């Protein structure tokens, strides 16, 4: 396993990390979860990404029970969680108010059976809470030792710039990391987020690097019975004929390289140094080990050009905003 720094910060995390969305405490039982988590840690993954909303707190409980049994030293782990989404019908049990943030960190730490989180993300932008209130609350958590680094998830470039500007103005700890969605079929962050991250030294821990399974090739010959593609409306929007044809062509490149489609997709994400880690989910040890192997794959310039000729989806600014560079 290879490791990368979290942006300009000294924290090092595994290039391939393990996420708990839709798996631990949800689609897979505790026994299978333990097998996957212990294998991941034994294979060199040191970063486990969770959120309080994942399975309504059950993901945190499962991970906490497994990693706190004495087998692993807490200082060797990088554990993250998130705050934003409602955990109950209580009107204050949502968003990024000071109350909800301070209540939520206590809940997450109790479920995880830990004293602190390495990373605590604001799980979306809160349009109803003053940004300064949110930043002050996150700063207090870092200063208290309950959180080592704080970050954001699915914030746009303007929101990140505002947060950094306010934090500097009031002398608060700046966000250290953004967690956006990024994969071969969703390249939105290439437009502004990546440049913003580079400029401010933010790490990027990206989720859905396999496009919820589309980029594994599992849908190349139709939607398997019982798969997420049958039930997820979010996924169905991307299960287009155009995308499937692209994945089929990409699968041919993977075959020529003697790697899997999943490994090609993960190696493509990791081609950019600004990406600190690709967060992957796993429902089996075999799937996990396949993903882990992508850390050893580096794609050549020629292969990247082949991939680009198939994708043809790099995002671009509206023509009126493009800067004309005069001939010299």
Q: Would you give an account of this structure?
A:
An eight-stranded parallel beta barrel has the order 3-4-5-6-7-8-9-10, surrounded by four helices. Strands 1-2 form a two-stranded antiparallel sheet. The protein has a single domain (3-212, 272-297), classed as NADP-dependent oxidoreductase domain (TIM Barrel, Alpha-Beta Barrel). The termini are far apart. 38% of the residues lie in helices and 14% in strands. It is α/β, with parallel strands linked by helices and 328 residues long. A hairpin with a 6-residue loop joins strand 1 and strand 2 (12-14). It has helices at 30-42, 58-67, 98-112, 131-144, 157-170, 193-200, 233-236, 241-257, 261-269, 285-292, 301-311; strands at residues 3-5, 12-14, 16-19, 47-49, 78-83, 117-122, 147-153, 177-179, 203-206, 275-280.
CATH-defined fold name: TIM Barrel
| Strand segment tally | 10
Mean pLDDT: 94
Q: Which CATH class? A: Alpha Beta
State the share of residues found in helices, binned by percent. Answer: 25-40%
Low-confidence blocks of residues: none
Please state the oligomeric state of the protein chains shown: single chain
How would you sum up the global shape? globular
Largest sheet data: 8 strands, parallel, barrel
Question: What structural class do you assign from the helix and strand content?
Answer: alpha/beta
Our count of helices gives 11
Tell me the span between the first and last alpha carbons: 46 Å
Q: Based on the structure given, which CATH architecture is correct?
A: Alpha-Beta Barrel
CATH superfamily: NADP-dependent oxidoreductase domain
Rg is 20 Å
Number of domains: 1
Strand order of the largest sheet: 3-4-5-6-7-8-9-10
Provide the succession of SSEs.
EEEHEHEHEHEHEHEHHHEHH
Percent in strands: 5-15%
